[in-house]
Structures are given as C-alpha cells and as structure tokens.
Automatic annotation (TrEMBL):
PROSITE patterns: GIY_YIG, UVR, UVRC. Interacts with UvrB in an incision complex. Keywords: Coiled coil, Cytoplasm, DNA damage, DNA excision, DNA repair, Excision nuclease, SOS response. This is UvrABC system protein C. Residues 203-230 form a coiled coil. It comes from Psychroflexus lacisalsi. The UvrABC repair system catalyzes the recognition and processing of DNA lesions. UvrC both incises the 5' and 3' sides of the lesion. The N-terminal half is responsible for the 3' incision and the C-terminal half is responsible for the 5' incision.
Length: 601
C-alpha cells in the first residue's frame, strides 16, 4: 500500500499533549480537537472504521494536519476552546449530536444568576464560551459554587417585590449556599463583587480572587474566628488547584506575535504564534533552507518578515528569544521570566517538535537528505575533519577470562552494515586483559584492511574509557594509521566520549542524534560480541564432556544432546537407548566411558 503524505504526518506526530487541526484540500479548517497524546489520538481517526457517518465523511476530507504542542491536557483544553471560537470549524458543531456547545451565562438581571446553557439569547446577558466539553463547564460551575454563595432561583428580585415580601428563603439558604437576597438579607453591592470575581475567574485571571480570599482568611484569623478562616483557606486551595498556571491563556498578553527559531547545518525552523485577547489564535512553523551559513538571528529576522506578510499581521509587539530587527513600527520584547517567557518557550518547543517531525518524514520520503544532514551533524558534534560515513565499533567479551572474544560492528551512513561485521577469537592474550585484547583486535582488523587494500573508516569507536582507547591508539600507531583514522572511546556509566590526549571527556546532549548513533553502535557491538561468546562457550561446554570420548565427534555430541536434552540424561541412558540414537558401535563407546567411570569410583 502506497504511503501518502497524510500517513507520514500521522506517523511523525509527537506523543505530547496538544491541539490538532484538520484541513481539507482547499486548506479550509474542518475540525479542531485536543489530545493528551497527539499521535495516539490522531491515529485513532485513521486506523479503524467509524460508527458515525459524519466522522467518516470528515476523515475522507482530511488532506492536511497541523498541531500545537502544549504543556498539559488542561492547556490543550483551553487552547482548543480558543481556536474553535476563532476558526469556527464546520465539524466541531456537526460532531456533537446536533447540539450546540455549552456556554456559561451571567444573566442580565438584579442579583444575576450564573448557570450553564446551550442557548445564547440576546437579552444583554453575558455568555462565556463556547466550551468544547460539557464536563469543562460543569467543572467551572462546581468551582464557582464552591467559592461563592449565589442564588439559583429564577425569581424576579426587583427591589419593589423584595420590599413587598413576595418571597421566602428556600433550602439553599439553610444549607449555606445562598445568602437570601430574596428577603433582602444580602446587599446587592456585595453580591455584584462576587459576580465580578467570577468574571475574572472565567477569563483566567485568578489573582484578584486569590488576594481577596487571603485577605478574608487573615482578617478572620486575627479575629480568632478560626473555623471560618479554615473554610476560606479551603477555597484558596481549590482555586489554586484550578489555576494550574496555564501558559495558553493569559489576559495580560494581547495583540502580540511570538516568534522563535531552531536550526541545523542546512535548515532553519521559525515558529509563529499569534495571541489575541490573552489566547493563542494561530500557530504556524516554516522551514527555511540556508543559502549560506546564516545565523539564527538572520533566519529569525527573515522568518518574521515572511510570516507577518503571509498572515497580514498588524500586531504592534513581538516576543522573541533574543534581540532582532523587526522594523520601526514594531516593538521587540525579549522576555526573561514569567508568562511572557513561558509563551516564547512554548513557541521554541513547537519549533523543535516541527524539526523532529521533519527529520522523521525525511527518513521516509527523502532518506538521502536525512543521511546527509545526520552525517554533517555528527561531523560537527564529534569535531571530525570529514563526515563519518563509515564507522566501526569494537567490544570485548569474556567471563573471568574464559573463551575471550571480540566483535567489530560496522555502520555505513548511520545504519548497520551487517555483512561487514567481524568476530575475533583472542589469540595472543592470556587471561582477562581488556586493554591487551582491544589492542590485538584493532591491530588485526586494520592490518587486514591494509593488506586487502580495503577502505578505512572515518571513525573508530572502542567500548570503554581511557584504558581501552589508549590500547586502540597504540594499535593504530603500530600500523602508521594514527593520523589517518580518528578514534574515540565511550564509557558506559555517564556516556562520556574520550579523545586521545584530552584530559577531560566530551559530553553530548542525551537527546542528540549523534549520541544515539554512538549508543546504537556500542549496543550492537555488545550484542554481537555476547552472542558470539555464548555460542563459543556452549560448544566448549559440549566438548568438555562428550567430545573427549575417543571416537565421538561434535556431530554425534549434538545428536545425543538434542535427543536426551542434557549430559546427565546421556549418562543415565541404557545401552539400548543409546543404540537407537547413534548406532551400536558409538553407543558402546559412550556407555563404557560413563559406566567404567562409575565402576572406578
């Protein structure tokens, strides 16, 4: 089955929280959704049949997928809500069983009610939403009810009717959930302060509410009213848990463009986020091919100009990770901490994820470009004079000096070349001496390549620290190859890279592809060497018992072990049982060998 561009996009999505957007062939938005794991969630649309006809129709229309990575599922929920309001995707409405989205309403009335609704009525009431999930609104309503005492009745609480005594307090008043404005037991100004606090909470601004509650708690504590102070403290805890410091929505950040850049040897990746009314309403990343050796600053300035023109952005301020020139009419801010810095960091993270996804896609659709980039990266990271297209890695294997062996694995263009792997029996070293064994196998390997006029590697890696590296260097010096073949050692514990003559090791970022390739080489050499060592040890174990019987060779030994499963069972077997497996003459040899031994003891 042919791999499409859409398949590649799905396969290379990050396994992180975020928001995904589906677009059709005309680049029209179809759907916005949130996910705890973007790759898993989006894949679910394409790897199974859908019961809903509408989902099936939508999936057939999808031609492109965009996504934004965020810190948490809560951030994804908030961002999804903002994008749905901004972009109005067609299928976000259709896929809700023909229901409209839930809203939170602050009713236009005296002593306003706050409630959940699916109908927006133009009567002067305030509506917040729409929310993508009924659970979200119910959570918000639960928070509000836990913090504030609001009325839930639908009475007309006009001043005249209250003065006429038309209403009586209900059960909610006796439960402490309402302060009884229907009987004029609560001041309207006090009630409206609660409504203003609720507006701020819904908008994401919790600072004022937290301050008010802390002031209340402190005042009650000073008055020795500790039980009431404890109740207010519980409200503060509830509000702080809900807050969870979202970097997606911040009311103070408005009408701002955010830019960041990451780059490698050949390309730069510039991410753009547009913020309006405290929310991300757009995110886009572009890939820019380097013409010369442009710096990140130059790439970012080019990207800012191109993206702002493309999206016709008129935002008067931009946030960037470092100072750039952006024109006379644009204010450039380089945040150092707080929410502004968090937004820039979020942009940078999205640029990095885009870069990683491009690498994954490149492996599938353009493997040559991926290899060229990887080799250039390794050359720079490892401080080599040429790209390490051909790498060889050595590892010794022995257990207390028994059956010492070594392995050499070969990678070409960053991939294993198994036909070039080589095994070595240690010939000149007595006992468990890793250093001498390493010198022997490195010497034998490259003496052979020189004799056969085979190409030498651009990098040699030995598994071990300074001692093994020194042995490898000595072997190359004996062959006159010290200046021709670079060699390094990798120590297992901290993944340290040792260079000949350097006192201190090199530490690579654990996420770099260079270190991952070196680790893969080391692990493959270890696996290959251990397998060879075990096979040799197994054959040696067979030989010590059966092959020392005169007239019994390896083939007969294997036949006996395959049939009887162990040497102990071979010893206990009758002559007739042995004859059935290996014939009369050989059966007599085996039977006499073991039974004569027993008689002697």
């Amino acid at each position: 089955m042919e791999t499409t561009e859409l398949d590649i996009q799905v396969k290379t999505l990050p396994e992180q929280p975020g928001v995904y957007q589906y677009y059709d062939k005309d680049d029209r938005i179809l759907y916005v959704g949130k996910a705890k794991n973007l790759k898993k969630r989006v894949s679910s649309y394409f790897n199974r049949e859908h019961d809903s006809h509408r989902i099936g129709v939508m999936v057939k229309k999808i031609k492109n997928i965009k996504h934004i990575v965020v810190d948490s599922e809560m951030d994804a929920l908030l961002l999804e809500n903002n994008l749905i309001k901004k972009l109005q995707p067609r299928f976000n409405i259709m896929l809700r069983d023909d229901k409209t989205y839930p809203w939170l309403c602050i009713k236009n009335e005296r002593f306003p009610r706050v409630f959940l609704t699916r109908q927006v009525i133009k009567d002067g009431s305030e509506y917040y939403g729409p929310y993508p999930s009924i659970r979200t609104v119910k959570t918000l309503m639960g928070l509000i009810k836990g913090l504030y005492q609001l009325r839930t009745c639908n009475y007309d609480l006009s001043k005249t009717k209250i003065e006429q005594g038309k209403y009586k307090v209900c059960l909610e008043y006796h439960l402490g959930n309402c302060k009884g404005p229907c009987e004029d037991l609560q001041d309207q100004e006090e009630y409206l302060k609660q409504i203003e606090a609720i507006r701020n909470i819904v908008k994401g601004n919790l600072k004022d509410s937290l301050k008010d509650f802390r002031d209340q708690m402190n005042n009650l504590a000073e008055e020795m009213r500790f039980e009431e102070a404890e109740k207010v403290k519980r409200k503060i805890t509830t509000l702080e848990k809900y807050q969870s410091k979202s970097t997606v929505v911040n009311p103070k950040i408005s009408n701002v463009d955010v830019f960041s850049v990451v780059s490698d040897e050949g390309y730069g990746y510039v991410n753009f986020m547009q913020l309006s009314h405290g929310a991300i309403i757009r995110s886009h990343t572009i890939e820019m091919k380097k013409k010369l050796d442009e710096s990140d600053s130059e790439l970012l300035e080019l990207g800012i100009t191109e993206i702002r023109q493309r999206f016709e952005s008129k935002s008067p301020e931009i946030y960037v990770p470092f100072a750039v020139e952006a024109g006379e009419n644009v204010r450039v801010t380089v945040p150092k901490l707080g929410d502004k810095k968090a937004i820039v960091d979020l942009s940078t993270r999205n640029a990095k994820y885009f870069r990683m996804e491009r690498f994954k896609q490149m492996k599938i659709v353009d493997p040559d470009r991926h290899t060229n980039r990887l080799m250039a990266q390794m050359k720079e990271d490892l401080r080599l004079n040429e790209e390490p297209r051909h790498i060889e890695c050595f590892d010794n294997s022995n257990i207390q000096g028994s059956n010492p062996v070594a392995a050499c694995v070969v990678f070409k263009n960053g991939k294993p070349s198994k036909k070039d792997y080589r095994k070595f029996n240690i010939k000149t070293v007595e006992g468990p001496d890793d250093f001498a064994s390493m010198e022997e196998v490195v010497y034998r390997r490259y003496r052979r390549l020189l004799e056969e006029d085979e190409p030498l590697p651009q990098l040699v890696i030995v598994d071990g620290g300074k001692g093994q590296l020194s042995s490898g260097v000595t072997a190359l010096e004996r062959l006159g190859l010290r200046s021709k073949v670079p060699i390094i050692g990798i120590a297992k514990r901290f993944e340290e890279l040792f260079y000949p003559g350097d006192q201190y090791p090199l530490y690579l970022d654990k996420k770099t592809e260079t270190l991952k390739i070196i680790q893969q080489l080391r692990n493959e050499a270890h696996r290959f060497g251990i397998t060879f060592h075990r096979n040799k040890r197994s054959k040696s174990a067979i030989g010590t018992e059966l092959e020392q019987i005169a007239g019994i060779g390896e083939k007969t030994s294997i036949e006996l072990l395959q049939h009887f499963r162990s040497i102990t069972k071979v010893k206990k077997a009758s002559l007739k049982e042995l004859e059935d497996v290996i014939g009369i003459s050989k059966a007599n040899l085996v039977y006499k060998f073991y039974h004569n031994d027993q008689n002697e003891t």
